[in-house]
Amino acid sequence: MKKIFLILIFSNFLLSELVLEITQGTEDPYRVALLPFKGDVDISSTLNKVIKNNLNRSGEFKIFDSETLLSIPKDETEIVFNDFKILNVDYLVMGEIISEGSSISVVYEVYDINKSSKVRTSTVYGIPNKNRQLGHYVSDGIYEEITGIRGIASTKILYVTQEKTFNLVIADADGTNEQILLKSTEPIISPAWSPDSKRVAYVSFETGMAKVFIQDIASGKREIAIENSSQISSPSWSPDGRYLSLTMYQDGNAEIYILNLKNKNLTRLTNHYSIDTESSWSPKGSKILFTSGRSGSPQLYELELRRFNSKPKRLTFDGNYNAKGAYLPNNEGIVFVHRANQNFQIAIKYFDENFLRPLTEAQMDESPSISPNGNVIVYAITDEGMGLLSGVTLSGAKFRLPAKKGAVREPSWSGFLR
Amino acid sequence: MFIIRNKLNFLIAIIFLSSCSSMNITEEKVNSGDVKTVEAGSLNNENIRYDSMAVFANATIYFEFDKSTLTSKSIQTLKSAVNALNDNSSIQITLAGHADERGTREYNLALGQRRAENVSDYLVLNGISKNRITVKSYGEERPAVTGQNEESYAKNRRVEIN
Fold it and tell me: N or C: which end of chain B has fewer CB within 10 A?
C-alpha cells in the first residue's frame, strides 16, 4: 500500500507572478543529499533553490540540505560514504560553478551512496542572466540519472491569462520566467506547441470569430492557418509537425479535418451531424482521438488514420461527459475531462483496464496537458471563481501554480527542450 | 589523485577515468529560448455594425445544459424576430451562440455554434433568407454574467440576435 505524506512548500520568486506550492508528495522517495555548489555564492544559492524545488515538485525526492548531514565533503576525496549510508541517503550531488567574465558553466557530479561510487559527471554551459535555466538543466540531469526517466524542469508551459487583455503566455515548468507571446482584446483558447517547440498554434477571436493561428515563438511572426470564411478551432500538431488536425465549421457543424501545412491541402476526417471536435494525435501519429456527441453526450472516440475506411471507435463509457482527451506519450492510455455527478475532473483510462481512474476531485477541472515524459499532468482549476493552474503526477503528488492576479487557464506542455 | 587546474583538464581527466567505468558523462548548452511579444490585429468585425444594428430583431434565446434544441419559449421570441425581419427586409443579422462555463472550451464552442445554427434554421424555415444571417460562436468565452451557480449558467447558455 502506498503511503502518502504531505509536504508544504511555499517559495516566492521575486520576478514571478506564480507561486509554487506542493500539496502532496509520494511514498518512498529517493533520498538525495544536495550540497551547495562551489563558486559564486549568489549563483550557487539560486541554483540550489531551483534544483531543490524542481526535484521536490516531482514528488519523488526527499532532499537533504547540508545542515542535516553528518559530513560535508569539499570534493570527491573527502566523501565518507558511511556518513550518508547512516542517514539512508541514496545519492549525493555536488558541483562547481565556473564563471569567467560573462560566461558561466556548471560541472556537477552524482554519487551512488550504496555503490560508493560516482555515477555521473556533467557539464552545463549557461547563458548570461539565465541562471535559473542552468538550474533546470542540472535538475533534469540529476532526475534522469536517478530515475532513468527524462526530466521536465527545462520544459515550458504555455497558457492563457485574462486581465485587461487576453494574453498567451509562456513560462518555465515551475511557473516562473513568464513571457507574453500574444496580447489581444479578444479571447484566445486552445494553445498547442509544435513538436519541435519552436511554434505554437492557437485559436484567436481577433477577427470576430474563432480562427486558428500559427506563431513562431522566437520571431513573433504569425499567420492564419486557413484563409476562408469558416470558423476554425481546436488545433493539434501531428508528431512529425507536418500536419495540423483542427475543427472546421464549414457546413455549420463542427467536423475534424487534417491540414497539410506544406501544401495547405485539407482532408476531412469526420462526417456526422453531431459535434466532432478536440482532436489530438497518438504518439506515433497513426490515430486521432476526438470528442464526439454522436451517442447523445460528449464521449471520446479514436480513428485509425492508416486503415482504409476505418470507423471511429468509442473509448469512454463511464458517465455522460468525457471530453478533451490526449494520449499518454507511451500510448498506454488516455487522459481527459470526466464529469462525475456535477463535478468536472481529470481522469485517466489505461487501455488494458475497463474502468477510468479519477486523478483530481475538484469541481471544475479542465484542459489537461501531459508532460513530455508522461509523468505529470497540468490542468486548469477554478477556485472561488478564479482560474488557476494545478499539477498532478501519476504517482500521486499534487502541486499548484496559483496566479496572483487575473485568470490563468488552458495550459499546454511543451516537448523536451534540451 | 588529480589536481584540478581548470575545467578542460578536469573534463579530460573525467573522460579518461570513464573509459574504465560505467559512469555517465554529459555536456550540454542551455537554450536561449527567446520569445517575441506581439499584439493581435485590431478587431475588424464587419458583421456587427452597431449604428445600423438590427434593433427590431434584437433578442436573446436561452437553452438547457448541453442542449441546442429550441424551447417553446424560445420559439415565441423567434416568432417576433421573424416578424421584425420581414418588416425590415434590408437588415442583416448575426447569431452569436454561447455556452456556460461548465465542460470543455472547444466542446462549448461547438455547442454555441449548434445553438446559433438551430436558431438560423428556424429563421430560414420561416422565410428569412440565409444570406441575411451570419452565424458564429463564442463558446464559453463571452459570458453575459459571471458566477458559479445555475442562475448564472442559465443566462450564459444563449444565442444573441444582433
Answer: N
Query: A30 at the B interface (CB within 8 A)?
Result: no
* Share in percent of chain A as helix, strand, coil (round to 5): 10, 45, 45
- CA A205 – CA B140 distance, rounded (Å): 12
CB contact under 8 A, B110 and A220: no
Q: Which amino acid is at A308?
A: F
**Number of Cβ pairs < 8 A linking chain A and chain B:** 203
Instruction: Classify residue A391: in a domain, yes or no.
Output: yes
Q: What is the pLDDT of residues A52-78, one digit of tens each?
A: 999 988 889 999 999 999 999 999 999
Measuring CA to CA, which residue among B150, B162, B8, B161 is closest to residue B70? B161
CATH number at residue A94: 3.40.50.10070
Question: Are residues A205 and B14, on separate chains, in Cβ contact within 8 Å?
Answer: no
Is beta strand A61-64 parallel, antiparallel or unpaired with respect to A30-34? Answer: parallel
Contacts of B153 in chain A (CB under 8 A): none
Q: What CATH number does residue A273 fall under?
A: 2.120.10.30
Same domain, A234 and A336: yes
Q: Residue for cell digits 425590415?
A: B88
The whole-angstrom separation of Cα A267 and Cα A235 is 14
Domain residues for the domain of A132 are 9-147
CA distance B50 to chain A (A): 14
State whether B43 and A208 contact (CB < 8 Å).
yes
Q: Do B38 and A205 touch (CB under 8 A)?
A: no
What is the Cα–Cα distance from A210 to A193, expressed in whole angstroms? 18
Q: Looking at chain B, list the stretches that DSSP marks H as alpha helix, in order from N- to C-terminal side.
A: 7-18, 72-87, 105-125, 150-156
Test A121 with B23 for CB contact under 8 angstroms.
yes
Structural domain contains residue A85: yes
Domains annotated on chain B, with CATH: 52-161 (3.30.1330.60)
Q: pLDDT of A269-306, one tens digit each?
A: 999 999 999 999 999 999 999 999 999 999 999 999 99
Q: How many domains does chain A have?
A: 2
Asked if the Cβ–Cβ distance from A207 to B107 is below 8 Å, we say no
User: What is the pTM for the complete model shown?
Assistant: 0.88
* Smallest Cα distance from A123 to chain B, Å: 5
- Phi, psi (degrees; rounded to nearest 5) at B97: -85, 145
pLDDT in tens, chain B (162 residues): 344 445 555 554 444 444 445 788 889 998 888 899 899 875 554 444 444 444 566 789 999 999 999 999 999 999 999 999 999 888 999 999 999 999 999 999 999 999 999 999 999 999 999 999 999 999 999 999 998 899 999 999 999 999
